[in-house]
Automatic annotation (TrEMBL):
Assigned keywords, A-Z: Lyase, Thiamine pyrophosphate
Stored Gene3D superfamilies: 3.40.50.920, 3.40.50.970
Gene source species: Streptomyces chiangmaiensis
Family classification: Belongs to the XFP family.
Stretches of the chain forming a coiled coil according to its record: none
Chain segments carrying region Disordered: 358-383
Segments forming domain Xylulose 5-phosphate/Fructose 6-phosphate phosphoketolase C-terminal: 562-690
Descriptive protein name: Phosphoketolase
Required co-factors: thiamine diphosphate
Domain Xylulose 5-phosphate/Fructose 6-phosphate phosphoketolase N-terminal, residue spans: 34-362
Length: 713
């Protein structure tokens, strides 16, 4: 049953689409029978992908030979997802002029559903021959599932229309919010599994909407909770709540829950129309609608087979019938299941959806535009960069930009406005995952964003970033590159912080992925950091991490910086001798540069006869070998910088093991001595931590002298 709530709806602000228009027009233009036919078509295609090799329309009685030897895939989440897609199709087709409706799949296991929807929408091309609606295309879709080399069996951007790779588990609502920011024309509908409601990212995203109040003119988000009752292994926590408890839960979060099981199609259409009427911009105070669809997991599938109950059990999660080709009872259940959709009414003999099905389809959707500044901020010389804050302010002044931070903008000493206030384009919330979700959604829709955070807390997002790297990689393979880069500003470094705030682990994990999109920038001073940030914000198709100390430090001669920026590393002539060196000193990061340059001065005094070469590494990723690292130093440049047999002492701000791994992949092991963060056994002072790690100037000087002695001896 639907929850009915009478209220007076305030008028929408200027520029915000009249989404009730879509509901009115769709109700008049699209009959209920078309939506039912579309839902049945999606369900049939989803189930057929799991089970069939032939007889795709059931034009004749099903035979065991028509069934796959080993069914694979996920069925359970498909029916409720298909229900939403069928109902949203007409609303999308009749959306207001100039508006946009995006569906975001939080349920990663709904791959068959997304593929089926792409086929019905005419955007899926599998054979490369002829129209997208044809019997060869339909056969390729169904018999080729799970398409291990083409799409995979789950939600990925290799499937047309997919903007979020399922499997991140939790951030879909935050990503949808990020997509709607600064886009008043856009409505985003995230489909959220009830298992996802148990994740911290989803739980925090409901409350996170409050942080966006007064932060600009935004679009709308209509969350849809697929309250199907089951996770993979058993009942969800939401399933144990009464309807009154569910209402109270979402009401307490500031939402207006609209609850329905989807069984009565006209009633569910009216509920959706009510939700569209109640939509308001994301940043506007007051209650927002949330749809809670209580359709059971695996609905319309077999309920029981040979006395074995299937419906309402974890058996519906994947393939409810394990071996229907060889099991008579399962075969009979499969034949009845597929026949219940009456597929011959839904698809012509040419594989085309019938006219009735096509009435409920959304039609083509315009790709979101990319709004970026007309001139890259990195066009000036490095000498003219004042500081990181100025770069952020200048980028924000050009529009289509957001800064997200977990309550640390002031702590990180970022000056975003003259009066010290937080500008509308900067948002704080004490949650790393939400900040990442907002950034991911914002960049996914073509705008630039920056996440500024403490070094020690950034590793919370490791899993989200690894999954997003997979998403970016697949988008690139699908020729959907060109997105703005994902940018992290990592500051409040552990070298100056308390024991609990010491953890440079995020960039180590990112380097271990050996993903060519990753760049870990380690500039030597504040001026260089500002220029690097400008390059990051002007770029695309990268996942960038800028490590820079928030406290003022020494400034170094700017002359080598152009090479540091273009090659990733450069020799510092003012600290280097001419000719072949006895020792190479290499720094990465501002604190290591401060200590290693001091060590070089000490070494010159104690060993004036020793020739050294000093260089700085601006991007740790260039140390790895090609082809894993497409921006790697080529062998000629690497040899020019590091030589072939000269010992190298390298000081880095990260765990040294990740840098050693990059060098080892090049075949460099014994002559490189890498010094970096090493976990202390107890709290200590910043000076004590440097000593413990061997990163103080004195410790580095002593290590350098020892290496020279060992090499010459």
């Amino acid at each position: 049953m639907a929850l009915t709530t009478e209220r007076v709806t305030d008028p929408a602000p200027p520029g915000f689409p009249d989404w009730s228009y879509a509901a009115r027009q769709a109700a008049e233009a699209v009959p209920d029978q078309a939506i039912d036919a579309c839902w049945r078509a999606l369900n049939h295609l989803s189930a057929a992908q799991l089970y069939l090799t032939d007889n795709l329309r059931l034009a004749r009685p099903l035979r065991p030979a028509d069934v796959k030897e080993t069914p694979r895939g996920h069925w359970g989440v498909c029916p409720p997802v298909n229900c939403m897609l069928a109902h949203l199709g007409p609303l999308t087709a009749w959306r207001p002029t100039g508006s946009e409706l995006l569906v975001l799949h939080g349920a990663g296991h709904a791959g068959p559903s997304a593929l089926a929807h792409a086929y019905l929408g005419g955007s899926l091309h599998l054979t490369g021959n002829g129209p997208s609606w044809s019997m060869p295309e339909l056969r390729a879709l169904i018999t080729g599932f799970p398409h291990p080399e083409r799409f995979g069996g789950e939600i990925t951007p290799l499937i047309p229309g997919v903007r979020h790779t399922g499997g991140q588990l939790g951030p879909a609502l935050a990503i949808a919010q990020g997509m709607a920011l600064d886009a008043p024309h856009r409505l985003v509908v995230p489909l959220i599994g009830d298992g996802e409601l148990e994740t911290g990212a989803t739980a925090a995203a409901w409350l996170a909407r409050r942080a966006l109040h007064g932060s600009g003119e935004h679009g709308a988000v209509l969350p849809v909770v697929l309250a199907n009752g089951l996770k993979m292994g058993g009942p969800s926590l939401l399933a144990g709540m009464s309807e009154d408890d569910v209402r109270a839960y979402f009401t307490g979060l500031g939402y207006e829950p609209l609850i329905h099981d989807g069984a009565h199609l006209p009633g569910f259409r009216r509920l959706l129309a009510d939700a569209f009427t109640r939509l308001r911009p994301l940043g506007e105070p007051g209650r927002q609608p949330v749809i809670v669809l209580t359709m059971p997991k695996g609905h319309t599938g077999p309920e029981q087979v040979a006395g074995r109950w299937i419906a309402g059990t974890p058996a519906v999660h994947k393939t409810p019938l394990k071996s229907p080709r060889h099991n008579d009872a399962e075969f009979a259940a499969l034949a009845a299941w597929l026949a219940s959709y009456r597929p011959a009414e839904l698809f012509t003999t040419q594989g085309r959806p019938t006219d009735l099905v096509r009435q409920a389809l959304p039609g083509p959707s315009p790709a979101p535009g990319t709004a970026r500044p007309s001139a890259p901020l990195a066009s000036r010389g490095p000498q003219s960069w004042p500081d990181v804050s100025a770069v952020i302010r200048e980028r924000a002044a050009n529009g289509a930009f957001r800064l997200f931070s977990p309550d640390e903008i002031a702590s990180n000493r970022l000056q975003l406005a003259a009066d010290g206030r937080l500008p509308s384009w900067a948002v704080e919330i004490l949650n790393e995952e939400i900040c990442h979700g907002w950034l991911q959604g914002y960049t996914e829709t073509g705008r630039d964003a920056l996440l500024a955070t403490y070094e020690a807390f950034a590793p919370v997002n490791t899993s989200l970033l690894v999954q997003h790297l997979k998403h970016r990689r697949l988008r690139y393979l699908a020729h959907q590159g060109g997105l703005p880069s994902v940018n992290y500003l990592i500051t409040s470094l552990g070298w100056r912080n308390t024991y609990t705030h010491q953890n440079p682990g995020l960039v180590s994990s990112m380097l271990e992925t050996e993903d060519g999109f990753v760049h870990v920038y380690t500039p030597a001073d504040a001026t260089r950091a500002a220029a690097v940030l400008a390059v990051m914000l002007a770029g695309h198709d990268r996942v960038n991490f800028l490590i820079t100390d928030k406290h003022p430090g020494p400034a170094f001669p700017p002359d080598p910086f152009r090479d540091e920026l273009t090659d990733g590393a450069a020799i510092w002539p003012h600290l280097s001798h001419h000719g072949r060196p006895h020792l190479i000193l290499a720094s990465a990061g501002d604190i290591p540069a401060r200590e290693l340059t001091a060590a070089a001065t000490l070494l010159r005094r104690s060993h004036p006869e020793i020739k050294i070469r000093y260089l700085h590494v601006n991007d740790l990723a260039v140390l790895g070998p090609a082809p894993h690292w497409p921006y790697a130093l080529d062998e000629r440049t690497f040899t020019r910088l590091f030589g072939t047999d000269t010992p190298v002492l390298m000081a880095v701000p990260t765990h040294p093991g990740s840098v050693r791994a990059l060098l080892a992949a090049r075949g460099e092991t014994s002559r490189f001595h890498v010094v970096g963060y090493r976990e202390p056994s107890r709290p200590t002072t910043p000076e004590g931590l440097l000593e413990h790690c061997g990163l103080s100037a004195a410790a580095l000087s002593a290590q350098a002298a020892l290496m020279i002695k060992e090499h010459s001896g």
